Amino acid sequence: MPTMEMTNPAALPADWRDFLALTKPRVMSLVVFTGLCGMLAAPTLPPLVLGFTAILCIALGAGACGALNQWYEADIDGKMRRTAKRPLPDGRMERQSALHFGVGVGAFSVLLMGLATNWLAAIMLAASILFYVLIYTVWLKSRTPQNIVIGGAAGAFPPLIGWVAATGNFAPLPLLLFAIIFLWTPPHFWALSLFVRSDYAAAGIPMLPVVAGFENTRKQIFIYSLPMAIAAVAPWPLGLTGPIYGGCAAILSFVFMVLAARVLASRATEPTDMAAEKHLFGYSVFYLFALFTVLVADRWLGW
């Protein structure tokens, strides 16, 4: 478990870019996008100002998660090359500032969501923040190689929150969107963890490649890709979307499975040789963006 002392007691004064970095903008962009798509796929839409406010709340909630994650893992981040230049391990910010920022932004996002849309959406936003911080970051990440599997639920909330913010209730389609992201998360992060395995090992994080090896991780990537592909296509035969989504989802998922099969067949152990793993990781990001884009296109083109 990481210690709670400040990484650098003589931290330099932080500026706005450091606070922005705390929010993990690249991760936030995917969260905001899937939340927006969940809202746009709903049968009714809130007024423009309230809809914008709901998406802003999802963004703020995601940013709070990033800040609190970096506050708790500052010592771990300092041990990994890809995170060592974040504001806390690099000494550009005091740890307490990140804690206050994360708690304040998170609380504000939940309160604003409840006042602007409905309290069910606010409760779900609060649940997603608490799940990410307490269940994934504090409990799972440093203790079990199943951290990504269970913790994937935190990243799967946004389309469900967007839908509920628009409608005030649940429905089968947003629940399937939750399932798609939940099942997509392990192949996505395990592909990354294969070629940054040394970073996780140095930080003592029990990611699957560290504790179970390359071969088993590649098998798990392929195994999880199968139900993900089924869940991605399922809205069409269930009558929840039209043929635009169904056809595109089938093609996108087929390509995903081909790339996952290439990873399964790979025997590379050095990051420089892991072309298949890097291709799958890169495509997995495109896959989720493309899948949710065609979902909205299908909805707005008449289905």
TrEMBL record:
InterPro entries: Protohaem_IX_farnesylTrfase, UbiA_prenyltransferase, UbiA_prenylTrfase_CS, UbiA_sf. Keywords: Cell membrane, Heme biosynthesis, Membrane, Transferase, Transmembrane, Transmembrane helix. It comes from the Bacteria. Its EC number is 2.5.1.141. Carbon 2 of the heme B porphyrin ring is defined according to the Fischer nomenclature. This is Protoheme IX farnesyltransferase. The keyword Membrane applies. It is found in: Cell membrane. Converts heme B (protoheme IX) to heme O by substitution of the vinyl group on carbon 2 of heme B porphyrin ring with a hydroxyethyl farnesyl side group. Belongs to the UbiA prenyltransferase family. Protoheme IX farnesyltransferase subfamily. The keyword Transferase applies. The chain crosses the membrane at residues 27-45, 51-72, 93-113, 119-139, 160-184, 221-238, 244-265, 280-297. Signal peptide: none annotated. CDD domains: PT_UbiA_Cox10. The lineage of its organism: Bacteria, Pseudomonadati, Pseudomonadota, Alphaproteobacteria, Sphingomonadales. It is a multi-pass membrane protein. Its main location: membrane. Gene3D superfamilies: UbiA prenyltransferase. Pathway: Porphyrin-containing compound metabolism; heme O biosynthesis; heme O from protoheme: step 1/1. It catalyses: heme b + (2E,6E)-farnesyl diphosphate + H2O = Fe(II)-heme o + diphosphate.
